[in-house]
């Protein structure tokens, strides 16, 4: 009798689980079909529209006429969504004039498909995970960058540098801080 009761309980449990899984599969299929019908694009954080909050590091760069080359490079390297996330990030942002100091053809070469890995490495060398104001830097301080490299901060007579590049301005953002610099930082 115990075996029969156990067998009936096992069969009932199996039947309930099977029905539950079938209903879950139907609901998931219906949801997928609804999303396909609505043509909902799948996008990252950069697709969020928010005109009320403080701008993030990407929006800050996009809004600067002095950073069009940097913005093009970030888009080409596929880093827009990453840098639009919560962070916090400290971004050392070279100006267009800083990119112009590179040997002729360097930027154009880095924007080519076959050089995307190099471009990404260089851009990640400009990013530190954490929010550091210019006032927090100390002379000789070493920072580990996203690409695994290190930069060295310099502080002398009130001027702050990163690997010798001057910090021209610092802009707080919703997900960190952007330090405008006058040179492109190149990893070793």
UniProtKB/TrEMBL annotation:
Keywords annotated in UniProt: Signal
Pfam families membership: Fasciclin
Signal peptide (from-to): 1-20
Domain of life: Bacteria
Residues of the FAS1 domain: 54-185
Protein name: Fasciclin domain-containing protein
């Amino acid at each position: 009798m115990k075996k029969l009761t156990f067998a009936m309980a096992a069969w009932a449990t199996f039947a309930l689980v099977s029905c539950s899984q079938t209903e879950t599969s139907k609901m998931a299929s219906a949801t997928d079909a609804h999303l396909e019908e609505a043509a909902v694009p799948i996008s990252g954080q950069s697709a969020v529209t928010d005109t009320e909050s403080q701008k993030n590091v990407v929006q800050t760069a996009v809004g600067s006429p002095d950073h069009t080359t940097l913005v093009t490079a970030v888009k080409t390297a596929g880093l827009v969504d990453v840098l639009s996330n919560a962070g916090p990030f400290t971004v050392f942002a070279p100006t267009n004039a800083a990119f112009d100091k590179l040997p002729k053809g360097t930027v154009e070469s880095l924007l080519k498909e076959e050089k995307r890995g190099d471009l990404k490495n260089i851009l990640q060398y400009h990013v530190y995970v954490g929010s550091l104001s210019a006032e927090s830097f100390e002379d000789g301080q070493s920072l580990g960058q996203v690409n695994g490299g290190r930069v060295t901060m310099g502080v002398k007579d009130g001027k702050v540098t990163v690997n010798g590049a001057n910090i021209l301005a610092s802009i707080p953002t919703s997900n960190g801080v952007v330090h405008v610099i006058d040179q492109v930082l190149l990893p070793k």
